[in-house]
Amino acid sequence: MKLMFLSLLLWSCILKAQDDKESYAIYSQYLKQFRNEKGSTDFVVRTSTDNIRKYHSDDVSGVVTGIRGYVKGDFSFEFFFRPRVNDLRKDTLWIPLIDELSKKIKNEFIIKSEFAPDLQTILISNNIYKKYFGNNKQTEKNWNRFHTQYPIPAFLIDLSEIASDGKRAVFYFGSHCGGLCGHGALVLYYKDGSEWKFLTTISLWDS
Predict the structure, then answer these.
(1) What percent of the chain has pLDDT over 70?
(2) What is the reported pTM?
(3) Largest distance between two CA atoms of the chain
(4) For 27, which of 4, 127, 158, 161 is 20 to 30 Å away at the CA?
(5) DSSP assignment of 35-79, as one string?
(6) Residues 6 or more apart from 199 whose CB is under 8 A from it?
């Protein structure tokens, strides 16, 4: 009995490690795509998802509401989602997955240093983040301090936990480069055989 319990415990740990490995492979793939679009850049990644939990859960829930409305024929959402919405209308299993993400990002999630080694990623804790951005009234000075330590073209990155059903994966990605320089989106991946492939993004905010 003890041997069986230990075997099950070990197997669950192996599965968790595999899940983590797969998640960071997806993160890394998208960061490389982002880097290719922006040019050479470093990524300063926040280890805590506090900012996502506080500000963007409602935005993700709004996407779910919008997609459901569009599928039911409410075309007032068409401009917001098109051309991405056609992919989501063909496969409505994305809807509960995005809804799951809106719940996941209300909980704390800690990013680990498990990105691809050829990415320039620097992880900073929430305490270090607050040293740069704790004073919301001094945005320009905050970013000047940040870029003194992490020179342009360094991007400050927020990542959420990935919601996945094994065939689809969705997560929140936020990139920040200044007080009025940033973008937040849902990133969607699908599995083709054993390989994860990028499907699309759904923009949540721009500045």
Answers:
(1) 78
(2) 0.83
(3) 62
(4) 127
(5) HHHH-S--EEEESB-HHHHHHTHHHHHHHHHHHHHHHTT-GGGHH
(6) 87, 188, 189, 190
Contacts 24+ apart (CB under 8 A), 135-142: 139/179, 140/179, 142/179
Environment class of 63 (CB within 10 Å of its CB; exposed 0-12, middle 13-18, buried 19+): buried
- Residue 162: is its pLDDT beyond 70? yes
Position 50, amino acid:
D
Residue 105 contacts residue 161 (beta carbons within 8 Å): yes
Hey, what are 113's tokens?
A: 């240093």
User: Which residue in this structure is represented by tokens 């480069």?
Assistant: 177
Q: pLDDT per residue over 105-151, tens digit each?
A: 888 899 999 999 999 899 999 889 989 988 778 889 999 999 999 99
**CA distances for 132 relative to 2, 49, 102, 175, angstroms:** 51, 16, 28, 16
What is the model's pLDDT at position 143?
A: 94
- The two tokens of residue 154 are 């360094």
For residue 151, cis peptide bond before it (omega within 30 degrees of 0): no
- For residue 16, pLDDT over 70 is answered with no
Alpha-carbon torsion 203, 27, 190, 105, what sign?
negative
Q: Regarding beta strands 181-192 and 163-164, do their DSSP bridges make them parallel or antiparallel, or are they unpaired?
A: unpaired
> Both tokens of residue 87?
């992919």
Tokens 């065939």 identify what position?
A: 167
Q: Is the peptide bond before 83 cis (omega within 30 degrees of 0)?
A: yes
Contact 150, 37 (CB under 8 A): no
